[in-house]
Design brief:
Radius of gyration: 16 Å
Largest sheet: 7 strands, mixed
CATH topology: Rossmann fold
Shape: globular
Strand order of the largest sheet: 3-2-1-4-5-7-6
Structural class: alpha/beta
CATH architecture: 3-Layer(aba) Sandwich
CATH superfamily: Vaccinia Virus protein VP39
Helix content: 25-40%
CATH class: Alpha Beta
Order of helices and strands: HEHEHEHEHEEEH
Number of domains: 1
Distance between the termini: 54 Å
Strand content: 25-35%
């Protein structure tokens, strides 16, 4: 597992032992970053269910202003910190050890990009998407990308959120949500 491009290009990231964490495949990661590549520079990123931290690290390598990594497993948190050190990106990162859903409920900040890749069988993806929309954690014009099994259809969200597109890569899909801006509301104010 390597960083694809940017300041940490080619750096090898460490992986977790066992089957509980399933790193995003190279094909899916390349597809993801081809979709959001022009939206990363200077942005604030949330890598929820971070695992190895590879997605948030890729964003930092490509010029994201900052990234928050959240994972409940102590071994994953240690590994994310090691991977940030290996890539020289720790100065723009914050690693949170704890339950991702509790983190979302307590959050008092917004992000430009939110990356969601929970363990497929955990049943956390749809609740996380609902919490993000309910608590309006995504900034205006922000992007949320959810990785999921291709045979699962993710829910539509109420405005200002919308599904932009779902991309399929074999047995895995990426659903991209976009949040509208505030201009719709501003036009209605006299």
């Amino acid at each position: 597992m390597r960083v694809i491009t940017g300041t940490a290009r080619g750096r090898r990231l460490k992986e977790l032992e066992g089957m509980e964490t399933r790193p995003t495949t190279d094909r899916v990661k390349e597809g993801l970053f081809s979709v959001i590549q022009f939206d990363i520079e200077g942005r604030r990123v949330l890598d929820l269910f971070a695992g190895t931290g590879q997605l948030g690290i890729e964003c930092l390598s490509r010029g994201a202003a900052s990234a928050v990594f959240v994972d409940r497993r102590p071994d994953a948190v240690r590994l994310i910190k090691e991977n940030l050190k290996v890539t020289d990106l720790a100065d723009r990162a914050r690693v949170v050890s704890g339950d991702s859903m509790a983190f979302l409920k307590s959050l008092r900040e917004q992000f430009d990009i939110i990356l969601l890749d929970p363990p497929y069988a955990a049943g956390l993806l749809e609740p996380a998407i609902a919490h993000i929309a309910r608590f309006d954690i995504l900034r205006p014009h922000g992007i949320m990308v959810a990785e999921h099994p291709a045979d699962r259809c993710l829910p539509a969200l109420a405005p200002p959120y919308r599904v932009q597109k779902t991309y399929r890569y074999g047995k895995i899909s990426l659903t991209v949500y976009r949040r509208g801006g505030t201009e719709e509301n501003e036009e209605q104010v006299p």
